[in-house]
Amino acid sequence: MRTETYTAKDGKAISLKIWDDVSAPRGVVQLIHGMAEHVSRYNEFATFLNGEGFIVVGDDHRAHGDTDPAALGLAGEGDLFEKTVEDEKGITALAIERYGLPVVVLGHSYGSFLTQRYLTLGTSDIAGCILMGSAAMEGLVVNLGRKIAAKKMKKGKKDERGYFFAKQTFVKYDKKIKDGINGWLCRDKAEVGKFNLDPQCNFTCSNGFYYYFFGGMQAIARDSGEKIRKDLPLLIISGDADGVGGYGKLVKKLYKRYTGLGLSPELQLIPGARHELVNETNRQEIYEKVAAFVKKAIA
Asked: pTM value?
């Protein structure tokens, strides 16, 4: 893995990680990581994909990792969510220009919601898409979340940590799983321990961060799918014990959303698996499922 700087459209310096030590590459996988983590955590997975013939690229998002180490979880100026989606589009273009190979985007968790928004802006630039640890987020919960975050913003609490939102999600997931702090992430206790101790992980995002996040969810829900090509290879993959996906319920709802838009997505619910599939106890199985899909998508 090596690090480069990608300069975004607004001039923002984005930390970009690249795994391209591949002798005869057949394609590129673009990783779009989750909330309160960073893309270097995917090193083992990326190295596996290299062995399967794929170059891997992925950034540390705005408010995350090496891109914003002194402002983790803070929204900054402008619409953080939409700017991050724009960054991902730009990184896809960079990968195509540099390597001249088909690109498959893989978004995990928060990254999967960025990817859902990415799809609404057009899919002619990608060979396929994987939504991992995702869900259909829409309706009352999202609209109420946006209103609550807006009120906090008006009170000058934009940069205060969004503990209210964390309690409604991550804390509840832990209470249900009952496997320690952040045990909801995966069954591999060593990986959970690494996450908890990583200075660039396990932080609570700000009220401003959530405000723009919920706005992104509303934009996705409003979209008619006009710019999503109907033959786009799409894999929706989650653990059936993942709280983000409503323990399967919201993942199935997401599947129905895309079938309703005229696509033919593939749905895989992994029995017993939690949120971070690439760190799960059966991660080798997940790795192989992803590689098989990417090979099929670029064929």
From this structure: 0.98
